[in-house]
Design brief:
Keywords: DNA damage, DNA repair, Hydrolase, Magnesium, Manganese, Metal-binding, Nuclease, Nucleus. This protein is of the alpha+beta class. The chain has a seven-stranded mixed beta sheet with strand order 8-7-6-12-11-10-9, sandwiched between helices. Strands 3-5-4 form a three-stranded antiparallel beta sheet. The longest helix is centred in the C-terminal third of the chain and has 25 residues. It is globular, with a radius of gyration of 33 Å.
Length: 834
């Protein structure tokens, strides 16, 4: 049975033993009578009778630390056994002033205690859902790090994973230094009641409730993190919003958050007082400050400086900068032109704010530990949105039914810092590609190339104990992806030598096992052929690629197509090379799929003015002389409706993924593969996109497929429909909107048949990363006749890819009717082109 994931343990609605409403924060605080080993470490403020005895054999070093602490504090006064005051289990002794804020509770047994509600309304404030056990654990871990019991991490990941993933990772504690000058106090915390501030609080407390995460931060960074939790409510709200913004300078007058305060200057002053940011603009370059001004303000400074004004803002800024650059000081004591300009700018700007780089960097690493596998296209704002939607019950994520064992994925602090930096660069690259800023793309590509080649040379680690999906948390993984993504931008600049250099580096590097190495070889082969006119080298590339280990069916097909093109050449290739290439082709020739057996050609009118590279729009004339505008797939769908198919769906890759997710949900989401789920907000296990996904679960898949083949087909269909309806509630790899209802899904399953369903799912189970795409465009069906057809649709000038051919070939082998539908333009212009 699946369990719902809420904002883990911080916002979790759980069965509680006591609900205590504090006077100071007016929140319901959850206490749990169970204590773990670290909670036993500090007990100086608790009576001897209330301390849970520690198993000495289980953790002798922690037992010794606790005994030492207890002996040193034995002279301190302790509350009586029948005291009516509940003292929080904190690492420090509470002052009498703070004790007054704690609530007095009767010492009666739980059975005689007044009844409390066992669950909280989803509409309750965030502060009313705080789990104090989690908060206290985080504060205790802060103090353990402060006192040296939690040391800086320096893990050898190879050794940890070599011991076996069936064994639990055990954290080693250092010697406790009881002379630490300053300690963290849980009563200093301010519990937020607003969602953005609550997200920051939740992320921090969840991350640091796991003691090992403290070892990724130095003492200064831990101080900063704890300071965030002690800010006033307004300051926490403002900081949360500034963390989501771009890390640059802002004019305070331009920032409006009326839900915090109409006047934000005192709140910004509190952030600056706690070193969360700075307002010192005097040390900044004039160019940076001028960009913060509005056009009228820049014109005003131009007038005062006797510089031409009334032009575009960028031109006026350059004029001002050029004027002060060429000016001189002619007498002693006069202000320099640069300083005079800066003073004018500062008067126009008013108070400004820039979040501290150290604060931003620290929180970025905390957020990474909270959600290591977040899509690099998304940012902190997207993470906050996800947490809000989960908290409000708008989205659900699947969670493994068994608790996952913890293993570190970062070796040390430097490893984490480098990973966050490389992922941030990849995020910037994707944004630049989206906005077609090719100069930025090339700059990021060069930066990544320089970082990659600066790494020590690495031998091929085929026997590495670290799982492939864990290796993706190495910084070089995103350096490699950035270089690979930037290759197209370098081709646009016609700098082919750089492209060839980068491709060779990607192919020969040993740091990351690339799943697209074959496509890189093909890219290099094309460059050798078209730009360097070296057909001999191209042929050599093809022969080398065809004998590569672990070459996929798709890669082989692509290389065979390349080989056949080269063999047709009359010149440029020696007879010996041609003979060797022909022999290589003969060895794997049977892999090459044939063209579809059934091809249908239909006609329609292509709308004029279609933009090159975009989806084409077609016009369909109806009987009542009206017209419909639709895509090429829509034209094909209408044709098949006229042939007797009653329903259809433009599915592409969504259909096989949906069938696979529903049928194999248990293997995907309920099987506890090591390190497959590092967060409660994942749509899929991390190893799904690696070659080891099937290997780890092969026995489970084989058992399931064998069991299904022995079932009654209609019983299997009913089971599948129930699962589909149930799992549509979750965020997962499947498209929940592909079918209108469970009944429509049932019709498709029956029309595809048992062999069709199992064949498609087996394909994805064995190599999901390759076969999640390339599936034909349409499925049309007639439930009354129990008939269906899967159709690939092509418009003018559109050819079948190798993957599309392989899918059509494979579906045909399963006995599923397939067809290639070619839509031709029947207008006069279209006829002339054809």
């Amino acid at each position: 049975m699946m369990k719902q994931s809420r904002i883990d343990t911080f916002f979790k609605v759980q069965r509680v033993s006591r609900n205590i409403k504090t006077k100071e924060t007016d929140v319901y605080v959850t206490y749990n009578n169970k204590t773990n080993i670290q909670e036993e470490l500090y007990s100086s403020s608790i009576s001897d009778d209330s301390i849970v005895r520690m198993n000495r054999d289980r953790s002798p070093e922690l037992y010794a630390i606790r005994k030492r602490r207890q002996s040193l504090s034995s002279s301190e006064s302790k509350p009586s056994k029948k005291s009516s005051t509940w003292i929080l289990r904190t690492p420090t002794k509470l002052s009498p002033r703070k004790l007054e804020n704690l609530v007095k509770i009767s010492s009666t047994s739980p059975s005689k205690s007044p009844k409390y509600k066992q669950s909280l309304s989803p509409r309750k404030l965030f502060s009313e859902r705080i789990d104090m056990d989690l908060v206290q654990q985080a504060v205790e871990n802060f103090n353990l790090a402060k006192q040296g019991a939690i040391k800086s991490n320096n893990f050898n990941l190879e050794e940890i994973y070599l011991k076996g993933l069936d064994k639990e990772f055990k954290m080693e504690y250092g010697t406790l230094n009881l002379n630490a000058a300053v300690m963290y106090d849980v009563t200093d915390l301010k519990y937020p009641s607003e969602k953005h501030a609550a997200h920051v609080f939740a992320i921090i407390t969840e991350v640091f409730s796991r003691g090992v995460n403290c070892g990724y931060f130095n003492e200064e960074e831990l101080d900063i993190t704890f300071s965030i939790l002690t800010l006033s409510h307004k300051a926490q709200m403002l900081l949360a919003r500034m963390l989501k913004r771009k890390r640059t300078w802002y004019r305070i007058s331009d920032i409006k958050y009326n839900e915090i305060d109409m006047d934000l200057i005192p709140v910004f002053q509190e952030l600056i007082k706690h070193n969360m940011g700075t307002s010192d603009i005097q040390s900044q370059d004039n160019e940076i400050l001028l960009k913060l001004l509005k056009v009228k303000e820049v014109d005003s400074i131009c007038k005062k400086s006797k510089v031409p004004h009334g032009q575009r803002k960028e031109i006026s800024i350059q004029n001002l900068l050029q004027q002060v650059q060429g000016s001189r000081i002619y007498f002693f004591g006069a202000k320099s032109p640069k300083n005079a300009l800066r003073n004018m700018i500062c008067r126009e700007l008013g108070p400004c704010f820039h979040i501290s780089e150290k604060v931003a960097s620290t929180f970025d690493r905390i957020a990474t530990l909270f959600f290591p596998s977040q899509d690099p296209q998304k940012d902190l704002g997207d993470m906050f949105l996800t947490l809000t939607q989960v908290h409000e019950g708008k989205i659900l994520y699947p969670t493994p039914t068994r608790e996952m064992k913890f293993f570190p994925i970062f070796g040390n602090r430097e490893h984490l810092i480098s990973y966050v930096e490389s992922k941030a660069n990849y995020h910037d690259l994707l944004k630049a590609i989206e906005n077609k800023k090719w100069d930025i793309v090339r700059d990021l590509g060069r930066l990544s190339y320089n970082r990659l080649i600066s790494l020590p040379e690495k031998q091929e680690d085929l026997e590495s104990s670290i799982p492939l999906h864990v290796k993706k948390f190495a910084p070089e993984y995103f350096w490699v992806k950035t270089i690979s993504k930037s290759v197209d931008a370098f081709k646009k600049s016609k700098n082919i030598e750089d492209v060839i250099t980068y491709l060779n580096v990607l192919i020969n590097q040993k740091h990351v096992q690339l799943s697209n190495k074959a496509s890189l070889y093909q890219e290099l082969c094309l460059l050798e052929k078209h730009y360097k006119k070296d057909l001999e080298s191209s042929a050599t590339f093809v022969m080398d690629a065809l004998v590569q280990n672990n070459i996929t069916e798709l890669d082989t097909t692509n290389w065979l197509k390349r080989a056949e093109t080269l063999l047709r050449r009359q010149t440029g290739i020696s007879k010996e090379t041609k003979a060797n290439l022909k022999a290589a082709v003969e060895r794997v020739k049977n892999v090459l799929p044939s063209n579809p057996n059934v091809t249908k050609i239909i006609g329609s009118t292509l709308m004029k003015g279609n933009i090159s590279g975009s989806k084409s729009t077609w016009i369909m004339n109806l009987a009542d002389e009206s017209s419909l505008y639709m895509s090429v797939e829509g034209v094909a769908m209408q044709h098949y409706f006229s042939e007797g198919f009653s329903k259809g769906s433009h599915c592409e890759g969504s259909l096989p993924v949906l069938l696979f997710a529903v049928l194999c949900w248990e293997e995907l989401y309920e099987y506890s593969a090591p390190c497959a789920f590092l967060s409660s907000y994942q749509e899929a296990p991390l190893d799904l996109y690696t070659k080891h996904f099937y290997d780890i679960r092969s026995s489970l898949f084989e058992k399931k497929f064998k069991s299904i083949r022995g079932q009654d087909f209609m019983s299997f269909v009913e089971t599948l429909v129930v699962k589909y309806i149930k799992y549509c509630d979750y965020e997962s790899i499947m498209n929940k909107n592909l079918f209108k209802s469970g009944e429509e899904f049932k019709e498709v399953v029956i029309c595809l048949g048992l062999d069709g369903i199992l064949g498609i799912c087996e394909k994805l189970a064995k190599d999901y990363n390759t076969w999640k795409s390339g599936f034909p465009d349409l499925i049309v069906w007639n439930y009354e006749k129990r008939q269906c057809k899967i159709v690939e649709v092509k418009g003018p000038g559109d050819d079948l890819s190798s993957k599309q051919k392989l899918w059509l070939w494979y579906l045909e082998s399963l006995g599923i009717p397939t067809e290639l539908c070619i839509v031709r333009d029947t207008s006069n212009d279209g006829k002339r082109r054809q």
